[in-house]
Amino acid sequence: MEVDGDAEIQQAVRFALFHVLQAGARAECRAIAAKGLTGPGYDGHSFWDTETFVLPVLTCTAPLAAAQPLRWRHATLPAALNRAQQLGLKGAAFPWRTLNGDECSAYWPAGTAAFHVNADIADAVVRYMHATGDMTFEREVGLELLVQTARLWRSLGHHDHQGRFHLDGVTGPDEYSAISDDNVYTNLMAQQNLRAAADAAERHPDLALDFGVDDEETAEWRDAAERMNLPYNEVLGVHEQSNGFTGHQLWDFAGTRTDQYPLMLHFPYFDIYRKQVIKQADLVMAMYLRGDAFTADEKARNFAYYEPLTVRDSSLSACVQAVMAAEVGQLRLAYDYLGEAAMMDLSDLESNTRDGLHIASLAGAWIALVAGFGGLRHCDGSVGFAPKLPEQLGRLAFTVQVLQRRLRVEITGPEATYELVDGDTLDIEHYGETVTLKQGAVVTRQVPQIPEAPPVGQPAGRHPAHRGWTPGRHESGAAET
Amino acid sequence: MEVDGDAEIQQAVRFALFHVLQAGARAECRAIAAKGLTGPGYDGHSFWDTETFVLPVLTCTAPLAAAQPLRWRHATLPAALNRAQQLGLKGAAFPWRTLNGDECSAYWPAGTAAFHVNADIADAVVRYMHATGDMTFEREVGLELLVQTARLWRSLGHHDHQGRFHLDGVTGPDEYSAISDDNVYTNLMAQQNLRAAADAAERHPDLALDFGVDDEETAEWRDAAERMNLPYNEVLGVHEQSNGFTGHQLWDFAGTRTDQYPLMLHFPYFDIYRKQVIKQADLVMAMYLRGDAFTADEKARNFAYYEPLTVRDSSLSACVQAVMAAEVGQLRLAYDYLGEAAMMDLSDLESNTRDGLHIASLAGAWIALVAGFGGLRHCDGSVGFAPKLPEQLGRLAFTVQVLQRRLRVEITGPEATYELVDGDTLDIEHYGETVTLKQGAVVTRQVPQIPEAPPVGQPAGRHPAHRGWTPGRHESGAAET
Q: Where is the Glycoside hydrolase family 65 central catalytic domain (chains A, B) (predicted)?
């Protein structure tokens, strides 16, 4: 990973990759804890951080290392099957926080109800298979993880009179809402989970039968996925984070002092849960991981609506906001968020690095660069890039493993260069244009010059530190730099 | 209270009145606990039971005794003002469960968020004033209780783009849902609270000014009340208990064994909260206490919708269901529920009478008779009756204090007789017809012969014990008696 124009970021992303590899690559069938082995924070527990933040980096850089934590998840299936049964559900309910596979979360509105961890595990399986095509893994681990999580979603959800499929009473990534109906992130990730399970069962009918999967069951999964409800506010023209969210009262950001963040340490949850205030990227996260479910206009409108509500009281937020800020043309903001994700520990931004490193945020630095400024997206067996650099960076270069090949990508301001380092000839997309890559050949494409989109604001006092630019009048955080 | 035709009920209602008076009439500025002084259940705590179940009986039978628990509430105002401030709200937030005025509930989804207790206290104030016209009480206690609770509602709620007023993130009487938006019971009771506070401030402008109330504040209360949002499902033609409720999955009643009730001891709350299953009358309670907000058709449709979802895992349910069953023409069912409320302790129906008597359910026996078969309703300075007896009862007679008079009411099957025992000439309503009562004169009116409405079912296995009738085919609980 080479970053020209910002030595601090270059150093930080090396620091980040070292620690992500340190935490993940040698875990060898153990969980990757939120702090790795660097400190006592979170008491050594693992969360969705592993599958959603750490594994994307490992999958693209050291794919065999990504298989190990998923094999660990698979080893905990008995506990997850048992947990689902306790909850009156089918399939597997993986724990929100855990040491050995048992649920260790006692606070149920944000623990038990955060079912999305199951779809996040499925997403990591799909991503790993996409990168490696490792059929041994799929037969030994992947299929069963997909099948048991799909069963969970089917039993957790239900159809309404109009045939729409709902997932009620869940908590999405944003822990400042809870027990909500039809959280868009959860629903879209569950939709992918259901489809991936049906597809995998189709690939391995013999093994699927061993798990008791028949064609009626896979048809139910596909149908539920097809009819998944996604709440949308027609008047505002934005998706609802969860059903009814945009009708809630706005948090009084102007009346909240800087020393009252993070909010959960200064306000009762009764007050936080019933208002429009977001701890961390939730719908914005859905637009990254399930970008195929949104139009470009929807992404821009949703980003503009949710950005001023998101206080980033979680270190899992900035990197995702960086990715989507870049996609919707907010390159300066994306660059600031890259800085926040990358410098989380080196600058001790949350004043708790003594408790251990934020491994997911460190992984997020890589994500912000590759998915944000590189614009890498995987989707259904294809891979695309939409590179764009902020004015502060002269060059960004990285190597990723996708579709069983290694690709070298180098982006300068006006151009992007793609090189197939090894593997068979491959079609990729560059801004939607198909580009054929043959091993050894270098292909260069122009980067469209997209003007910076009009800035969107953050909650009062919560804009990220600006890196190398000064906000003008009418821009976010004009009073501060 | 005389009940001919059911000696057990006659005996039970005397038992009930004895214990309600025992618990309440000598409390003398102390709280009335859920168990009175009869046992250790609920650790001696008081809840909304006092204002909503016990005080209606005391207000109509021994009104000066009803003033005492309200004076006790008033004495705890400093704690309630402090609690509201802790929660970032204005006015007073009275505790969900308490000994001395401090909140003793630790389980916030069903404790802190059950704000309706504040409107229930206001309702008791309004009811007491309606019965007694006690202006000393209003100036010393009533006005301030109304003002501080109205302030709570105004600060808890907010307007949306269309100007509708919402109360989000609250828990209504039904504790099998929580943290819901626009609970109809809460919204309607808050509406009454806001209006009553504005009216009381209008009556006592000098004193209101001492509490800092000006015309802008009362106008805000009236406007919020006027714009109160009441969610309604147009397709089903029923009100939503709370926003989105009717879209939730139905509880699997057929798959729930008798020994799995009460549900909260056998299923996780995550599962209970996200499904259509009701612990106790909630919307049905709103139709009783705020009957003016519903048409007769709406009441019948709502009752038919919610009755099959209500499992009565709370002893506060049967009496309210008796009242509304009688109003919508389900007289047999009303009679069964009267029996359940009246026999709760004498027959130890919940197998926990050893923990103390269910004082509210005992009060509910009186409520079921007077408000159910007597059809007593108070509304805005008027009082009405809609008497009707189930076939098992030959006669029901009772005396009530209303509008500073004592009325004797005697109902036989075909006729109702009204006598003004003391007080000035009064107009009452008998089935909507104005009847003028002069002291000493007895007025008789016909009781319309209303055919029994088609029966509605209860959740499988949860119908009340039938009293003196056998369900035919196509009727609820046909397999059991």
A: 14-366
